[in-house]
Amino acid sequence: MNRAPGLFFVLGVLGLTLVCDWAMAADKWQPAKCPLPTRWTKDVSPANALPEYPRPQMVRKEWVNLNGLWEYAIKPRHEGLPEAFDGKILIPYPVESALSGVMKPVKDSQRLWYRRTFTVPAEWKGKRTLLHFGAVDWDATVFVNGKELGRHKGGYDGFSFDISDGLKAGDNELIVSVWDSHGGNGSAKGKQHFPAITNPGGVMYTPTTGIWQTVWMEPVPVTRIDRLIITPDVDSGEIKVSMKWQCATGVGGEGTFEAVALDGDKEIARGGASWDGQATLKIPNAKLWTPDQPNLYGLRIKLTGGDQVESYFGMRKISLGKDEKGITRILLNNKFVFQIGLLDQGFWPDGIYTAPTDEALRWDIETTKKLGMNMARKHVKIEPDRWYYWADKLGLLVWQDMAAGDNKDPEMRAQFEKELKAMIDGRYNHPSIIMWVVFNEGSGQYDTPRLTKWVKDYDPSRLVNNATGGTNCNCGDVNDVHAYPGPASPKPTETRAAVLGEFGGLGLAIPGHTWVAKSWGYKVEADAAALTGRYVKLLRKVHQFKENPGLCAAVYTQTTDVETECNGLITYDRELIKPDSEKIAAANRDEFPPEN
């Protein structure tokens, strides 16, 4: 059994192949020697590699988790299927990570191969079988029983194949071939840097190659729900629901779907529409979603023909408006809420791009809130759905960056825009996400007004930041500057709110809790007391900027140390909060002791 925490009960059907795979080498598996383990490293094994349901906003009851031990091989890029594999790897941890059990680099002149077998539960007879990948970095080709199913380019977005026609009774063979350009050839790389695996340094970190999110299967009817689009309208007290659908036969059809909104177990609204239409549900006395009260409603969607999924939504509005002084403000549910948050890079010393456990994902968000913050800027990385699920459930506002790319030629730019759209499509329904960030500090920046307008037109329900700390093109919803250690504030305009996209970076290396012997920070402090004092001083100025010239948000660098950087409020292994957490939380809440 699996449970999508707090909202839905999900039946997890675990195929026998999982038990066989685990038994094959589980007694011999162990993580590679990690430079810095976390408290969750010891909890990871082939029997429980991220067992949670991976898609909390579109839940089907039956599914099979394919995480666990697979075979792997690293071969020259242009060679075909290897005759022999190199060993075992624990999926979904990237091959460069200690938790994979491998911890080896894959060069752009090489290709990474995966192999495993699986069986399909007998109960799925008569249904179609979908194979899902949460994310594979970067260029993946998938084969079942020797037949190529398809190819996908993109390191952060999920993709699926209908594998029904290639299945056979008993054991089936799944092979995945992956090539990663490590930032060349149009891939959005974020902070990944290939040499960092052997020569870490600066603001670029160990790369991720291949599978780094959950792989899983589920049975579906011939005509199925492919995607949900849920848009809250706080002013009217409604949600609007539409969907994308697929038919395995390729034949179009007509039908209706029904949407039911739930407050706990109680039905509060019901509506329907044609398959290609939109249902509007009136939510009586709607409980709004905020960081202080992250109210979530359940949602059930059923197609004529039988497909049914469960989801959830929050009644939340984000917009710009003027305060009583005429200053342009960011409004949450039509009220100004000052946003103070962390630059969150989403790296882990044991899993690199992949958190060791779901509990670890939750811990980062809970700790951010305990430090008196209400926001995180997810920095040039797109997380698995479950990170945003915890942000939705625990109440954390999210600025979501697009992963940076080089974007030097038309082919690279086309790929960047494809992945930009995939990011919005894949994370659209999360109430926690209130802003899309197109570019970071000018990295790969091009056609900024056009892309900013495109994002705003595609998703008018959220704010758009054209370039945080980059070339200011006077477009989008915010005027964003970076200042280290700062702080600083731009001036708001008639149409753009003032935000401080990055500041701080105060460094403190704690012996025994660092990735390398020598770390760096933007402004290194002598000890925890000095770090606390400097932070409080910075935040006092931040809150002064809130009044004049009208700052609306500030993002402190950063949540944790990352590899050679020691400028996190928390050590990279998540063992220590470096400054005095109570004084930090008070400063974030604009509560200060009298100045001397």
Count of individual domains: 3
Q: Calculate the terminal CA-CA distance, rounded to whole Å.
A: 59 Å
Largest sheet: 8 strands, parallel
Q: Could you list the spans in which at least 5 consecutive residues all have pLDDT below 50?
A: 1-24
Strand content: 25-35%
CATH class of the largest domain: Alpha Beta
Question: Would you write up a description of this structure?
Answer:
The chain is an alpha+beta fold and 596 residues long. It has 3 domains: 2-219, Galactose-binding domain-like (Jelly Rolls); 223-318, Immunoglobulins (Immunoglobulin-like, Sandwich); 341-588, TIM Barrel (Alpha-Beta Barrel), CATH 3.20.20. Helix content is 15%, strand content 32%. The chain has an 8-stranded parallel beta sheet with strand order 29-28-27-26-25-34-31-30. A 6-stranded antiparallel beta sheet has the order 5-4-6-12-9-10. Strands 3-14-7-11 form a 4-stranded antiparallel beta sheet, with no helix packed on it. The longest helix is centred in the last third of the chain and has 20 residues, at 528-547. The model is unreliable at 1-24 (pLDDT under 50).
